[in-house]
Task: inverse folding
């Protein structure tokens, strides 16, 4: 007979319509879970090792009248997102107990994954830290790779600017830009992060946006010839400051807008006439557009990591109790590098 | 000996940094001009028949510290823009007296064109009203054609929205969309213009934006399935209202932003996160990007005009004295159709 275990989990307590959520909008509760897969189902029971904290989760804490691009979380139910897991028991022929996988799971100790296809992926390079599959070898990495190569379409010698450049996606975009032969500058929100950009990740230059009184001037200083590609993770005032600094025919890749997610009303961006006068292009994307190229990406990135051409910095908190604060910390810039939660070490 | 003639001309009196210019910022003066081409030069002396009034001219009335994409006008000097002209005398082997041409000229009776290549073009279809070469067979037409086919890249069945739809460019975009098999809706600023869109130009639907309390709702009513292509001539609040109504993967072609040109500070556009959540693309362009395809365009459009597949509505004022008010009228929507000035009839 299957074991029944206690299962600590993080649930959403209430919807947060606007403003910065607090830890108190989530709650850690204890449930009971039977470590078995329902007879006849193709579900997979997993033990969660690491889960990812991502800015887009903020939107899921709000109730949308018109459905958003991802489902809203539901008060009383477990928070879900990507993680790294070990299979405990499986009803699906492609997965067996002991397999290491990554994919969509719950912020809890054990999760029954009802649709292992297409939501679970085998971990093909377990020689790297398993936590990398919440980041550089998972969604954040594919986001950087799909956004940069499929949307930004860089050429050698391009001038590239990346905001939130030490974050989960930004640090990878910057290093991919260097591999492509671009000149790359990043912005971040602390001197510690700026130092990381210049030393660890090899950005050609970087600045602390919180210390610049004039963002437009800071960009002009860093890009006297202008910007060919802006990889935008923040939106708002930085996007507005970038527009006058773009080169003719420049491209803006809209990946995220973290500066806007907790505002009651988004900031207005005013410099849009530069789209006309400089023949600019802006294009947004979702990582789901690029799931089909994940395996090519995983293999390529494993090569870069092995050769030391890409390094990755993670900010790991331990335990589900620490998860709500870690998620909220993304919006104040508390994290240094990719934020994730370790639930169990094996 | 070459005749010396009086030459009435419109000059800029002073720069207008922000706000709506007034007629008084321009002045009609009388000069003397010798109707001869300087010996040995390749210049061409033209008699101006029609000149075009275009919203982009507003930007040229402002002094820019950082050079804009077109040169600023200079106080005391003649206003320049595209027009239709007859050659009076020529130092250039490609042009001879009596030729009908269109291209860059002055708001005056006679202009010495110093660089006939590349600024003057022969009129190949004089069977149409010559004034068409200030619009549907000139820059406005090429703007519509280049912007719609090279930037918007429409497919049959696309849902297309055009703002300032009865204007010089909008009426052509709408009719090109119909020729392509798109569903096309236009907005304009009076009931008279809305009627023109639905009857004369064959838009499937149209609305008067000044009578809509809720632009976002008006667009939802016209496009219950959403918008594939927005051809933006106005920017500002309309662009903001369009964003939530775009379909996934939709495209915005930034052609102009007439609602913004007289504001001290442009309106902020807030709904930019839809770029991410709906994988939208926005791309701006200048008509100069498409000069190389003008002759293909001229031939194709002449065919549409001949077959009655495209009709064109012009708003013609007579005399240089009326030119400053006609230009200003663009910003209050006084004109119905393409605004131009007749200086001489032959």
Result:
């Amino acid at each position: 007979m299957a074991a029944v275990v206690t299962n600590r989990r993080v649930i959403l307590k209430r919807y947060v319509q606007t403003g910065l959520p607090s830890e108190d909008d989530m709650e850690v509760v204890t449930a009971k879970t039977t470590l078995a897969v329902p007879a006849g189902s193709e579900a997979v029971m997993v033990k969660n090792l690491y889960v990812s904290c991502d800015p887009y989760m903020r939107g899921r804490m709000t109730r949308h009248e018109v459905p958003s691009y991802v489902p809203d979380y539901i008060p009383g139910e477990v928070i879900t997102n990507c993680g790294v897991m070990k299979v405990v028991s499986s009803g699906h022929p492609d997965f067996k107990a002991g397999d290491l996988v990554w994919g969509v799971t719950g912020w809890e100790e054990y999760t029954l994954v009802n649709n292992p296809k297409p939501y679970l992926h085998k971990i093909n390079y377990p020689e790297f830290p398993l936590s990398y599959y919440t980041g550089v070898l998972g969604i954040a990495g594919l986001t950087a790779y799909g956004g940069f190569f499929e949307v930004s379409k860089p050429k050698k010698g391009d001038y590239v600017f990346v905001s939130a450049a030490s974050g989960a996606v930004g640090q990878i975009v910057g290093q991919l830009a260097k591999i492509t032969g671009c000149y790359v500058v990043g912005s971040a929100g602390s001197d510690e992060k700026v130092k990381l950009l210049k030393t660890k990740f090899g950005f050609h230059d970087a600045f602390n946006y919180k210390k610049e009184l004039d963002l437009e001037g800071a960009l002009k200083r860093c890009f006297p010839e202008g910007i060919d590609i802006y990889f935008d993770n923040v939106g708002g005032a930085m996007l507005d400051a970038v527009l006058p600094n773009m080169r003719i025919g420049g491209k803006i890749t809209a990946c995220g807008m973290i500066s806007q997610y907790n505002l009651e009303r988004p900031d207005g961006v005013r410099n849009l006439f530069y789209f006309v006068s400089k023949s600019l292009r802006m294009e947004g994307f979702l990582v789901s557009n690029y799931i089909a190229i994940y395996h090519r990406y995983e293999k390529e990135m494993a090569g870069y990591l092995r050769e030391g051409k890409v390094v990755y910095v993670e900010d790991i908190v331990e335990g589900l109790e620490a998860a709500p604060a870690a998620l909220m910390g993304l919006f104040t810039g508390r994290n240094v590098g990719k934020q994730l939660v370790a639930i169990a070490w094996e």
